[in-house]
Amino acid sequence: MACVNPDGSISESGRALIKAAESHVTPEEIGKKIGQPLFKIRSSLRELHDAGLIAEKDGKYSATDAGKKML
Amino acid sequence: MEQVEEVQQNQTVRLPRLGEPAPQFEAVTTFGKIKLEDFKGSWLILFSHPADFTPVCTTEFIGFAQIHSKLKEMNCELMGLSIDSVYSHIAWARNVEEKLGQKLTFPIIADLNKEVASLYGMVMPGESKTETSRCVFVIDDKQIIRAMIYYPLSTGRNMDEMLRLIQALQTTDKHGVATPANWRPGDKVIVPPPNTQEMAEERVKEKAFECKDWYFCKKTL
Description:
The complex is a heterodimer. Chain A is mainly α. Chain A has 4 helices and 2 strands; from the N terminus they run H-H-H-E-E-H.
């Protein structure tokens, strides 16, 4: 259930998360939006952030241009 | 001739204790890389099993999956662990779903290097040096270890007790009470005993409690 596959493609749950993070949102807000447990949201956000697909500022997350292209 | 002195270092591993912060880790799981801190704000049952594709463990995983929704209602998550690869975990989870009809809905740590198992003292060399025993660590929403249970390789765990334990701990936190032997939700709870003579005298006069003596009082929540 990792979001980013070794070939760089994104899983279905990864796409849902990027879509839910189109504007500045907290992990809690994303969790409520897509119905995933908070631990999974935090773990996935970290992975997507490391891949440059999500940006973080002051604890709020938003999709980067690279992330939006994956949708 | 050069002499090489070998110094054997005895590394002392400090095992987790009740009431102390849970040792932090980052691990590869069937849900991707997860840090323990990702669970902050929710309770967690972190449990180990000896090996994938073994019968007792399979019954336990089905049991854990079956109580997962009840645990979630109590703001409690589950995470398994064994010294197996993530590919073995994935294959086993798929097999359990295909052959036994139970989807495993929680992450399983692939602890091939025994990092987390060592941190939590899950390997009991007297039983097996290559497998984790059936250990359970209840970690609360503030990441404090609240309960530990160890079962041997031969004996599957009791899922009712997992639920009861979480219910009892959360009841204690919410109401500042203790829970007696075999307590179930709805049963009377133990009022903490008074710790001064004056309070003991007041306690026996207290009408709201059901007291056998000053130190042994119960009440209904």
